[in-house]
Design goal:
This protein is α+β, with helices and mostly antiparallel strands. The protein folds into 2 domains: 222 residues, Hexon Major Viral Coat Protein, domain 3 (Alpha-Beta Complex); 154 residues, Distorted Sandwich (Adenovirus Type 2 Hexon, domain 4). Helix content is 15%, strand content 37%. It is built from 8 helices and 22 strands. Strands 1, 3, 4, 8, 9 and 12 form a 6-stranded antiparallel sheet that branches. Strands 13, 15, 19, 21 and 22 form a 5-stranded antiparallel sheet that branches. The two termini are 25 Å apart. The relative contact order is 0.20.
Length: 401
C-alpha cells in the first residue's frame, strides 16, 4: 500500500453534541470508494482560559477522561477508569518519544514543557513557566485563547492501516472538570471562574483524510475471502489507593489474567489525581522514603525485582525504565531523560519475557522508610498486543494476543 494515491479528499466532521458539558462524539460515515486514514484524524478546538489559570501539560487530552471507539456500532475500546484517556496519552507520548520532542512537536496538543508547576519553588521559575504555557495565545480581555489540534490517542486509531470501505467509526469522549487540566495561579480560589466544571470547547471539528490507490483496492479486496486484521498495542489503565498509616504495603492482584507485554506503574498523591485546583494531575515525583519495590507474578519476583533504593536515589528504577523503552544505549535517541527529570516523574517499568508465565496474578510490594504523609494512589499502565478483524459483513472480533 505504498504507491501514490489517485484520490485524496479531506472532510470536516463536526461533533454531534458540542453543547454538552459531559460528552463529545464524532461519527465518521462509511464511504463506498474511499478509505479513511484513521491515524490522521486531527481534532481541532479552541479553549478560552482565564488569566488566573495556566494549562497543565497534556492540555488537550486532559479535557477527556474516557474515550470509546465503535466500529460499525460495535464497541472495541472502552474503560471504567475515570482518567484513562489522558493517562494513556501521557504514556503513549513519553514511552515512545524523548521529552524534548514531546514538548515541541506536540505543543499543538498542549504539551508545553516537562516541568510540574507546583514542584517549582522560585517565583522567577514559576513566572517563566507561565509564559511558556501561553505560547502565541491571543488575548481576549482577561482570557487567553488556546487553539489546539490533537490526534485520538488509542492503539487502534494510531495504527496506520486504513479502514475498509463501507465501514463506520464512532469516537466518544467523556469530559472532565477543569481541575484535571489546569493549574490555578490566582489569589482568590473561592471565586475561580472555571472551578467545578468542564472548560467550554469551541470551534471544534475533526479533519479527516480519505484516500484510495491501486494497491489499497487490491489489498482490501481480499476481505471477501479473509477478514482484514489490525494488530497494535493497547494501553489500559487501572488505579489502586494505597492503605494509609503503614510503611510496608502489599497490593494483591493489581493485574490478573493474560500477562501484559509491558507494565508501567507510578505513585501520585491522591488529592492531585482526583482533580486539584492548584496541582497538576500527572505528578509522579519519586517518593524519597521509598526503599524497596517488588513486583511478583504468581508469587515469584519478576526479573530485576526486588528493587532496592538507597541514598534516596532511584538508580535502578531509572535503569529499568530506560531499558524497557529502548533508550539505555541508543545513538538515535538524542537528548535522553536525565536522572533529575526521572525523579520528577518516576515511572517504574517491566517488560515480561518469554521465560515468565503468560497468565497469572501480579502483586506489588512497597516498603517506605516512614508512613507517607499524604494519601497515595498507584497508577498502572498495562500494554497488551491486540488483534482486531473486520469481515466483509462488517462484523468485528477482538483478541488479546
Amino acid at each position: 500500500m505504498e504507491d501514490k494515491y489517485d484520490t485524496r479528499v479531506l472532510k470536516k466532521h463536526f461533533p454531534k453534541d458540542l453543547q454538552s458539558s459531559e460528552i463529545l462524539t464524532f461519527e465518521f460515515e462509511s464511504d463506498p470508494n474511499l478509505f479513511l486514514l484513521k491515524n490522521k484524524i486531527a481534532i481541532h478546538m479552541t479553549i478560552s482560559l482565564h488569566k488566573d489559570y495556566i494549562p497543565s501539560n497534556g492540555f488537550a487530552a486532559k479535557q477527556f477522561g474516557v474515550m470509546e471507539v465503535e466500529i460499525n456500532s460495535q464497541l472495541i475500546s472502552s474503560s471504567k477508569t475515570t482518567c484513562e484517556y489522558f493517562l494513556a496519552d501521557y504514556m503513549t507520548k513519553f514511552g515512545n518519544f524523548n521529552r524534548d520532542y514531546v514538548s515541541t512537536a506536540y505543543q499543538i496538543e498542549g504539551y508545553y514543557d516537562h516541568e510540574v508547576y507546583d514542584y517549582l519553588e522560585r517565583k522567577s521559575d514559576k513566572e517563566l513557566l507561565q509564559t511558556l504555557r501561553r505560547p502565541q495565545c491571543a488575548q481576549d480581555g482577561d482570557y487567553y485563547v488556546y487553539e489546539l489540534v490533537f490526534f485520538p490517542s488509542n492503539g487502534f486509531c494510531l495504527d496506520n492501516k486504513p479502514l475498509p470501505l463501507n465501514t463506520t467509526m464512532k469516537l466518544k469522549f467523556n469530559r472532565l472538570n477543569s481541575e484535571f487540566s489546569t493549574v490555578y495561579i490566582g489569589s482568590t480560589p473561592a471565586t475561580a471562574v472555571h472551578k467545578g466544571k468542564p472548560l467550554e470547547i469551541k470551534d471544534c471539528y475533526a479533519l479527516c483524510e480519505y484516500v484510495t490507490s491501486p494497491s489499497m483496492r487490491n489489498y482490501f479486496s481480499r476481505i471477501k475471502s479473509k477478514p482484514i486484521s489490525y494488530k497494535y498495542q493497547e494501553i489500559t489503565v487501572s488505579t489502586r489507593d494505597l492503605p494509609a498509616n503503614t510503611s510496608n504495603i502489599t497490593l494483591h492482584n493489581i493485574k490478573g489474567g493474560n500477562t501484559p507485554d509491558v507494565l508501567f506503574f507510578a505513585l501520585t498523591d491522591t488529592e492531585s489525581f482526583q482533580g486539584s485546583l492548584n496541582r497538576e494531575t500527572t505528578r509522579f515525583a519519586f517518593h524519597e522514603d521509598l526503599q524497596n519495590v517488588n513486583l511478583t507474578l504468581n508469587g515469584q519476583s519478576c526479573l530485576g525485582f526486588p528493587m532496592k533504593i538507597t541514598n534516596e536515589l532511584p538508580i535502578w528504577p531509572y535503569f529499568r525504565l530506560m531499558d524497557v523503552i529502548d533508550r539505555l544505549v541508543s545513538t538515535t535517541s538524542g537528548v535522553a531523560l536525565s536522572l533529575d527529570q526521572f525523579k520528577k516523574s518516576a515511572i517504574f517499568a517491566h517488560e515480561f519475557s518469554g521465560a515468565e508465565e503468560t497468565q497469572g496474578w501480579l502483586n506489588l510490594v512497597l516498603d517506605f522508610k516512614e508512613n507517607p504523609s499524604e494519601n497515595q494512589t498507584l497508577v498502572i499502565w498495562s500494554c497488551h498486543s491486540v488483534k482486531i478483524t473486520i469481515d466483509e459483513h462488517g462484523s468485528v472480533e477482538k483478541e488479546v494476543l
